[in-house]
Each structure stands twice: as structure tokens, then as C-alpha cells.
What does this fold into?
Amino acid sequence: MTTAKAATQLTVQARAELGKATRTHCPRASHAAWDPPSSRPDSVDLLEAQAKTRVPELVPIRYGRMLASPFAFYRGAAAVMASDLAAAPNTGLHVQLCGDAHLSNFGGFASPERELVLDLNDFDETLPGPWEWDVKRLAASIEIAGRERGFGAKVRRRLVLGAVGEYHRAIGESAAMGNLDVWCLHMDPAAMEKRWGMTAKPRAMKALDADFAQSHNRDNARAYEKLTVRVNGQPRIAARPPLVVPIEDLAQDQALDSLHEAMRTLFRSYGRSLQADRRRLLESYRYVHLARKVVGVGSVGTRTWIILLLGRDDGDPLFLQVKEAQASVLEPYLGKSAYADHGQRVVEGQRLMQAASDILLGWERVPEGLDGKPRDFYIRQLWDWKISVDVETMTPDEIMIYGKMCGWTLARAHARSGDRIAISAYLGKNAAFDQALAEFATAYAEQNQRDYQALSDAVKSGRIKAETGV
It folds into this structure.
């Protein structure tokens, strides 16, 4: 196993030789294979194991959302793929993994300078591990999304090769750059236009620009307008069960005051994980209200809260999302995190991989939740221009640009945390790895379809309960 830290002790030539030598025990062509072993765990068993640590009444919503389509299933099945990747060839060249780098986990959000940046935006599973695991998850997601859109096999392959090829190209570019230059790399709509605009279809680029332009509408003022009501003259988060449930509807009257106080304490104490200047900003807001919120697909059932805060007056709202951080699905195969607090694991991984992170991103452990058990959480702004494109409505030309953006972004993130020179040398100058990943994506899409059907059959048999349309 090699890391960026270890690589700093080697010359550039030695790092390149290490990457090339890795092909001996892990040939690039070996990544093409997906032949599930007879001992492969049952995919529904893996999902049920995850459900044991989640809010029981929300688990059927998770299954229902996963059954919406094979792509939706894939989004929720990071634990299944982690098990499969662990049985696959492994380069041993480690980076900070996203752990769930599918198409819908990329998008845009506001930088501290209030500019839109394009980046990874989900780090619940982040952990150090082999760089190719993230690339395989991205490649398979493109193949699966393409099938869902009805694209032909040649088109799907071209899209996968486009994204993987961009990863290959970008990691090679970073290998020739200085450390600080790599650290300062970032992607925004203007950079996307500059890098791919000349080769992209104008209509596709225009459509993506329009999608990202909508991010400016997703801010605290808009969240306040959509998510709150007035109760006895005071702003409160509106109830929309089961997706948004105010704390008053979850706790007994006698416990309500103590829960509000516990959340005020969390609000204050999590500030210790922020920079001092950002902690001062946080302290200028006051706690107002709390509600549980269902988010995403794979995250459904984890304990996620939204907190309403007010600053100068009622016209100065701030919404924070307090999201439970459980053990990464990668830990059974890559070892436990170096951080005892999983909230810190998520935050430190996010800060390492993102070009710019939310200024209020932090973590805190709650000694006693509603169920009386300690829980780890990470905290960030709920709506800070955060936006992702609707993959399930995109044209092939749009996915081509977007997939390349994802490949570039993943390479930039890996270059910050891993040995970019060794990875580039391993990939080499030809397309052997790119072609292998296209083959893998096709084979794994078939596996995903079988697993999707297994979940559907489990619902039909009564083995598990799914609540659809929520």
C-alpha cells in the first residue's frame, strides 16, 4: 500500500517506477473482469444488515426509493459494491476515497467566496483505499444511467470511455504539476466551458449551464420560504411527514425541553470543530427550531436533522443539516477509520478531497439521542447553492460533458491525497485501463440489475417492506 505521504520520501522517477511495477501484480486489463464468486454475499442481506442501525420506520422508504429504478438501486447499494470491489484486483495505490462516487454525487455548491464550484458532494463513505474503486463506481453508474435512458450499447461505452479517459488525462496532467498547483485546482462553469466547450455540442453545454445557474436559488432565504411556517407568530419548520417531522411530533412532552437544550448544546459545541473566525460567525446566530428530515436514497434511515437558526432578525435565517455518520461501508474491507468519531471521518475526508468546503462544515458526537445511544454527526449548511443535475433526464451529449467533469473532479481529488505520479505511471499512455473499465461497467451493470431484481423479489415475497412514492 502506498500513500502520498509515503511518496514524498521517493524521487519522481522512483514513484513512476512504483506505478509501472504495480502492473505486475495488478495488470490494467484485469480490471475488466467481473465474475461474481460463489461465496458472494446476498445483496439483500447486506442491505438488511445496514438497516439494523437505522430508524426502523424509515427503512421501508429507503427500499421504496431504491426500487424506483436500477439506477436508484445503485445509488443506495454502496455497501453491496464495496463487498464486490474488495474481491476484485487491487493496485494497492491508496488515496482518500469518496466511497460512493456515482454520477449523482457530483454537483455544484458555493465556495467561501460565494462562487459556484463543481465538485464531489457526498462523503458519507469516505476512507483511504485503492484509487480505482472510486473510478469503477463512477464508470458503472454511467453505464447504468445510460441503460435507464435507453441509450444503445455503443453510446454507453463511449460515455464511460469519455469519463474514464478524462480521469486518465487529468491524473497525468496533475503528475506533471507542483504540489501547491495541484492543491489549488478547482472546477467551475467557466472552467468547464474552457476545457470541454470546443468539443461539446452547444445545446448540451447550454443545458448544463442552465442547470447550474439554478444553484443561486438554493440558499437560506429560499429554504426559509419553503420549509417554515408561522406558529403563534414564531417561525417553525413545517411538518411534511414522513419526510420532515418537527421535534414536537417525535418526542414526548416531558422530553421536549431537554431535547431542545441538547440541540442547543450541540449547536454551540460543534463550533469547536470550526476555524476560530467561522466559529465567531456561528455564534452570531441563535437556535430556533429542529426537525428530522429524510434525505437522499442510500442515506434514508440515518438520523438526519435540520436546524433553523436566526441571525440579525427573522430575515436572516440559516439552516444547518445535522446528519448521522455511521461506519463507512468500506471499513470491513479496508480497516477501521483513523478517527474514532465518524463525523470527523466524513469532515476530514471531505476537506481533503474538495477544492473548497462549506465554511460551516464540522462534526460533533451526541452522547445520548432519542434512542438513548451516542451518535456521531457531521454538520453543514442545508442549502448553500448545492445542486446536482437530473441524470435520469440527460441526453447523451449532456452526460458526455458531465461525465468528463466527474472524471476530472475525481482525478483532482485523488491527486491531492494519493501518489498522482505512481497512478499516472500505472495508467500509462495507452487506453488499456480505460477499455478495461468500459468492460467492467457493462458487466457490473448486469450484476446491478440482478441485485435490483433480488430486492424487488424480497418485497414481493414479504421478506422486507418497501414504501414507494415517498
The first helix runs from residue 4 to 7.
